[in-house]
Every structure is written in structure tokens, then in C-alpha cells.
Amino acid sequence: MIVSVIGLGYIGLPTAAIIASHGIKVIGVDLNQDTINIINQGKAHIIEPELDSLVKKTIENGNFIATDKPKKSDVFIITVPTPFLDDYSPDISYIKSAVKSIAQVLAKGNIIILESTSPVGTTEEISKLFASERQDLIFPSFGSESINFDISIAYCPERVLPGNIICELVENDRIIGGMTMICSKRAIEFYKIFVKAKCLPTDCRTAELSKLVENSYRDVNIAFANELSLICSNLNINVWDLIELANHHPRVNILNPGPGVGGHCIAVDPWFIINSLPDLTKLIKTAREVNDNKPQHVLSLIDNAIKSLSKENSAINISCLGISYKADIDDLRGSPALEIVKSLSQYKINRLNIVEPNISELPESIEKNNINLISLDAAIKDADIIVILVGHFEFKSLDKKFLENKVIIDTLGILN
């Protein structure tokens, strides 16, 4: 068996490495030549526990190779990004590009699996696109009981947590939604090679919506916590004390608030449902707006802190702890912490210090006139205002005696 994984990002690379570690030949396909070069040197271009050693092992034993064009394979897995456009409508152009590149090397009997988070109907759309590109092959029709097709197509959403991806690719249940039940069965047979958990068969529409619903559920619950933090801020109540007390109720489990919601899933996927059915998604949309607006609340807290200091703004130093979208990873995609830092970069202050232990240089999107990426100790020593934006483990053991005479804005309650 040969498996091609299209897109070697935060999902594609771990998936490719896991499959290759089971003795299967894997061709990883990506358009970024730097990414290809790094992987073929036996290294991972992203930070994820266990991934570096897994890539090194599978590259060295010849089971894994990265390239820029798909080659003939038995199974094709699409793991490319699906962002949204300025109007919050889903952008599936990367998926369509992947389909067109795969179509040229398809052969009868192949399995195509879409893992990219997608609006409902995308799997059916790519089946039609494949059919238009390869009129010599027969592709399945949604819900059909016919066995007269050459290519099996299914949707299987990734359901992993950055920081624990390698384990969860193997241990988490998978939803396998086929264009037909035969497609589901064939895809399940493949996933069972490396997945120890349950593989749950369904149709592709249900699988697509399941992924969106899972992340929308989490977004709504986070929004409730974030809205509580706004209420408590106005009522001068400690929101973390409040949540701890409320969670003593046997049927209450409120999440902790933060500076917003980021990443490639929770902050994006709800819009796919909203875009499809705007009149029926009022709660989901409101939750999304609450979470999207949370960084503005944090900036208002920083503004008040600046006003409270008996200094000219041009003499004030602010240190921000963390700019990734969640704790203990290097992923900056959609990060509310990064959004806050970008806004602070426009402030006319003396220095803006950034502590981000998981990166070696600031992203190009940050103006660097008065911004420094420095150590935690140096940032605390230099700061008038300290803003805790990400719960990296390095920050959770801060000695409070070093924070005396500093204005502290703890958006996560890690010092509570």
C-alpha cells in the first residue's frame, strides 16, 4: 500500500508520520519547498511532542518522503487548510486545488479521504469535481446503494488536540462518513491500520456537520465563560472564584475564560454552519461574536492600567506573556493574544516586550519598532504592566514576589 497525504501542516505531517510508522509507504505532498526540505532532512517544521523523532525514524527507514506533487497511490488523504473569507464564508479553494492535483494520478480502486474541516456538502462537491476531471472513471453518488464506482470517497474529520496529537490520532474515536456505505467501509478498513479507537460509520454529510458541531459546542461554552468575565469585571467580582463556587453544583461545569478564542478550528468552524443557515444559528453566531470581541475587553483593561500609572505613556513598558493561540505550542493561527499584541504595537509606549518560549523570532505581522522577544525574567524585570495572555507552563510557576509593584492583567486566572 502507498498513501499520499496532501498538506503537511499541523494535521497532515503527524498523520503521515503515524501511518508511515506502521510500515506503510507514505508520500507527503506540500507546496512549501522549505517544509519539504526540512521534512526530508528527518525533522518536523512544527512543535509537537514526539513528532520530531517519529519523522526522523520514518524518513530514515524510507517509509516517508515529502515532495511537491502527488504520485500514484492507493489512498489519498487531503489535510489542507479551510479558512474563511472576509465575509465569513468558507474558503475551500485549497481543497479544490488538492483535488485537481490528485485527479491526474488517480487509478481504479483508489480511496480518497477528506480530513479538512469543511462545510456540509463539500465531500459531494469534490466527488463531482473529480468526475469532471476524470471522465474515464466512475465516482460514487451520495447515498446511492450502487456498487458500480471505481473510486471510494469519504470524509473523516480530525479530532485532535495540539500538544497531544500523536497520541490522539491513535486513541481518539474517528467518524468515517462515506459518499456511500461501501465507501465508509473501505475507509474504515484503512483507518483500522493505525487507529486503536472506534471507527464510527455514517454518511459524509453527517460527518461534516459533526465536526462543525463539536467545535461550535465548545465555542458556545467558552463564550458563556467569557461573558461571565465581562459581567464580573463590571461588578468587581473575581470571575475565577465565582466559577469555582458555581462548579460545586453537581450539574454545572463552567469553563475558564480567557483573552478570546483562536486556532484553526473553534474560531473558524462555527462560521461554516452560520454561513449555511444564518436564520437558524443565532446562538452560535452570538457566541462567536462574544469570543471575537474578548480581545477588545483585554485592551480596555490595559488602557485603564496605563491611565493608572503616574507616568507618561512614552515611559511605560508593557510585557505580554504568550502569543500562541493556546498553551505550550508554537501555533499562532488566529491567536487572540497575537491580535492584542498587534494592537499594542500601535501604542505610543516606550517598550513592548513579548515572552513566547515556543518560538525563536516574532512573526512578520508584528511591527517591531519598539517590540522585543525576550526572556521571562527580563520581561518581568522591565515591565510596568504585565499581561498574561497564554497559560504556558513556564508562566504558571511565577513567583509572585517578583510581581510586586507591577500592574498585573491576568486574562486566564493562572495567578488566582
Using brief descriptors, characterize the structure shown.
2 domains, 14% strand, 13 strands, Rossmann fold, single chain, 8-stranded mixed beta sheet, globular, 5-stranded parallel beta sheet, 416 residues, 14 helices, alpha/beta
Brief characterization of the structure:
This protein has 416 residues and is an alpha/beta fold.
Number of strands: 13
Largest sheet: 8 strands, mixed
Q: Structural class of the helix and strand makeup?
A: alpha/beta
| Global Rg | 23 Å
* CATH superfamily caption of the largest domain: NAD(P)-binding Rossmann-like Domain
CATH architecture of the largest domain: 3-Layer(aba) Sandwich
Helix share, percent: 25-40%
Describe this structure in words.
With 416 residues, this protein is of the alpha/beta class. The protein folds into 2 domains: 2-208, NAD(P)-binding Rossmann-like Domain (Rossmann fold, 3-Layer(aba) Sandwich); 239-410, NAD(P)-binding Rossmann-like Domain (Rossmann fold, 3-Layer(aba) Sandwich), CATH 3.40.50. Helices cover 39% and strands 14% of the residues. It has 14 helices and 13 strands. An 8-stranded mixed sheet has the order 3-2-1-4-5-6-7-8, with helices on both faces. Helix 12 (336-344) links the parallel strand 9 (317-321) and strand 10 (351-355). The N and C termini lie far apart (53 Å). The mean pLDDT is 95.
